[in-house]
Amino acid sequence: MQSKATRLDFEEKQIHVLRKGGKKDVVAVSPPYMQDIKDYLAVRSERYRGSNDDTAYVFLTRVNDGATPLSNRAIEALVKKYTKAFKSNKSMSPHKLRHTYGTNLMEQSGDIHLLMTQLGHTSTTTAALYTIPEQEKAKKAAKQLGERRVNFREKD
């Protein structure tokens, strides 16, 4: 139920992917999201008339009387549509959604190596881009501490 480049592992809650440049990788997925994929696959063949062989694509659209994989443009449109519906009328691109995931993962785990693995980065320099929000928080905190000092001195 995936392309030759992708393999879903429901037991281990992982997706084996083929990244840019032909690099094979494994991405850990939250159990609820793997269940969402399993639920989708349960209705996929009926709704989209997709086959259940191991070389089939996961996400399909109906074309005439058959199924075809979603195009990059279709995926972009779906991401924009659904993020707009859930994000107070503000849509996101797949790239921004990926960046948000990376930022949140870094914020939750503080583990740059985990981030590198999940996003397929080979360089800590690239992965460090996701720590910028932490630097922004530190700047904001420093500014607030400075303002607090000024306010404290004014009271004396």
Q: How many distinct beta strands? A: 5
Which strand order do you get reading across the main beta sheet?
Answer: 1-2-3
Low-confidence stretches: none
Name the helicity range. 40-55%
Report the structural category: alpha+beta
H/E series: EEEHEEHHHHH
- Overall, the morphology is elongated
Radius of gyration: 21 Å
Largest sheet: 3 strands, antiparallel
Mean pLDDT: 84
Distance between the termini: 71 Å
- The helix count comes to 6
Index terms:
6 helices; elongated; alpha+beta; two-stranded antiparallel ribbon; 3-stranded antiparallel β-sheet; 156 residues
Structure in a nutshell:
With about 160 residues, this protein is an alpha+beta fold. The protein has 6 helices and 5 strands.
What does this structure look like?
With 156 residues, the chain is of the alpha+beta class. Helices cover 54% and strands 13% of the residues. The chain has 6 helices and 5 strands, in the order E-E-E-H-E-E-H-H-H-H-H. The protein has helices at 31-48, 72-86, 94-109, 112-119, 124-127, 132-155, and strands spanning 7-9, 14-18, 24-28, 60-63, 66-69. Helix 3 runs antiparallel to helix 4 (112-119).
Topology:
Layout: E1 7-9, E2 14-18, E3 24-28, H1 31-48, E4 60-63, E5 66-69, H2 72-86, H3 94-109, H4 112-119, H5 124-127, H6 132-155
Helix pairs in contact: 3-4
